[in-house]
Amino acid sequence: MITRTLIKRSMAVAVLALWIGQVQANTFSITDDFSATANPNGAWSYGWLNGLGGTFTGYTASLSATAGGTIQSWHDPATYSLGEPSVWNNSSSSAYITGSVNYSAGWAGFHPGQHNQMSDFRFTAQTAGTYAVTFDFQGADVVGTTSDVHVYTGGNDLFSANVIGYGDSTRKSFSSMLFLNAGQTIDIAVGYGPNGSYFYDSTAVRGTIADVTTPVPEPETYAMMLAGLGLLGVMACRRKALQQ
C-alpha cells in the first residue's frame, strides 16, 4: 500500500526534477541582443580592432535601412570608407539585399576596413563562470567573400578560419566551453583574408555565449514550482490533521 509519506516524497522529487529540467542558461545572442541605439549594449560592444589583441575602438554611428528585409548597422565615421568597417544585424524575417551582398534573415555580420581594421563584436563577461560559446560564419557576398574570422580571448586565438565564397557551403563553425573571469572579453572579429583586399568581404555571423554556471529559471517554472510546493504543503497539513 502506498503511504502518504511515499506520495509526499515522490511529489518533492517531481517538483525538483521540474525545476532542474526547465532552467535556462543566461544566454547572450549576437543577433537577438543586437541594439541599433546603444553601444555598448549590455554585454555586447561593437567596434574595430587594429589587430587581434590590439586597441578596440567603439563604433559611434548607427544606420538602419530596408530592402526587402531590414538591417541595423554600426560604423566609425573616422574610418568609414565605402561602408566599411562596420557591423550589422538583420532581425527581420526577410533577406536584405543590396549590391552583391545578401544579409540573410536571422544573421548578423561584419566587414573589415580598407586598412585591415578588424570589425568586431566584443562580449564582456558580466560574472565569472563557465560559458558555452557557439558561432557560425559564412560568406555573405555573392561575388565571393575572402575574409578571415576569429574568436579571441585572453591573448589566445581560440578559433581562426578563412571564409572563402558565398553561402552555406562556406560555413565555418566554432563551439567550446570556456571559463571567463568577470570583465574578461571575447572578440568575434573579421579581417580581410588571404588576398589582402577588403573588397567583397561581407561575412555573416550568428551564435551565442551562454553562462552555464548560473542557470536562470524560466518565468513559468516559478509558477509550476510554487504550485507543486503548495500541493506538498496541503498534503503535509492533511497528514498532520490525520495524526491528531
Could you characterize the architecture of this molecule?
By secondary structure, the chain is an alpha+beta fold. The chain folds into 2 domains: 43 residues; 195 residues, Jelly Rolls, CATH 2.60.120. The chain is built from 2 helices and 16 strands. The strands form 3 sheets. Strands 1, 4, 5, 6, 9, 11, 14 and 16 form an 8-stranded antiparallel sheet that branches. A 6-stranded antiparallel sheet has the order 3-2-10-15-12-13, with no helix packed on it. The chain has a two-stranded antiparallel ribbon with strand order 7-8. α1 runs antiparallel to α2. The protein is globular and about 45 Å long. About 7% of the residues have low confidence.
Secondary-structure blueprint:
Blueprint: H1 4-21, E1 23-29, E2 44-49, E3 56-58, E4 61-67, E5 69-75, E6 86-89, E7 96-98, E8 101-103, E9 108-111, E10 118-124, E11 129-139, E12 145-153, E13 156-165, E14 167-180, E15 185-191, E16 203-217, H2 219-243
Antiparallel strand pairs: 1-16, 2-3, 2-10, 4-5, 5-6, 6-9, 7-8, 9-16, 10-15, 11-14, 11-16, 12-13, 12-15
Helix pairs in contact: 1-2
